[in-house]
Amino acid sequence: MLGEIVYHPRGDGRPRRTERYGLPLLAVPIRPGGWRERGRLRSAAWRLARQGVGRVLVPPEFAHWPLLEGRGLRPVDPLPFLRRCAGELVLAAMVREGVPPQQGTAALRGRRVDWDMVRAAEFLCPRVRELAVSAQQGGEELAAWLRREYGMPVRPDGAGVTAAVRFDPKAPSGSGRELMLFGESPDLTGVRPRAAGLEEKDQEDLALLAALWETGRLEGWGLEFT
Asked: Of 154, 130, 129, whose CA–CA distance to 143 is shortest?
């Protein structure tokens, strides 16, 4: 089960089963501030870990991850969700560059072709003017397949790229607005995933969006990329 740390002025530190947008959670309300806050967080982490919780949602600007990690708790990783949405992110990056996608060139960069790159390519082919594929392993095969399946003018990576997504830190960089979808801190270059149907405070909470996506509960909440 997923855990959650909730700051509340009358928080008593006792885990409670609850849910957000249909997502089951074991939430612990904590009183924020004061010299005892760290101790309250350690106690909450211990209680969550005892209940078998491994990942937790936390309040905005949470600054005490080492206390939770000491009990084996970790954040929800948004990277799988972001990689699954790589095509949508690239389109939003093009718009931020002031270029309509139908007039722009998108680039996919990685060491090797994987399913995330294939999905992004399939999504982008009908929506952009040109696509560039840069991958030492499988790149030529993917480009040839896209030409056959979509009649897409797949070109070598280089100058003139409007927006790109880089799936691997060892992949070569290049021109264009480049999203970095790897590592512990993906760089979206200002692009913002947003679920307009959620409460305003939750709409851009990446960890929450990723948790809802993982469990099949994000659909219907108006996901968009701006």
From this structure: 154
Q: Which of 38, 44, 70, 43 minimizes the C-alpha distance to 57? A: 44
Report the first-to-last Cα separation within the chain, whole angstroms.
31
Identify the residue whose tokens are 């501030």.
33
120 CB burial (10 A radius; 0-12, 13-18, 19+): buried
Q: What are phi and psi of 210, to 5 degrees?
A: -65, -40
Work out the angle at residue 221's Cα, subtended by the Cα atoms of residues 218 and 223, and round it to the nearest 5 degrees.
80
CA gap 186, 199 in Å, rounded: 24
174 three-class SS: coil
CA distance 110 to 197: 34
CA neighbor of 161 nearest in space, from 133, 134, 132, 191: 132
CA separation for the pair 46, 200 (Å, rounded):
31
What is the tens place of the pLDDT at every residue in 172-209?
A: 999 999 999 999 999 999 999 999 999 999 999 999 99
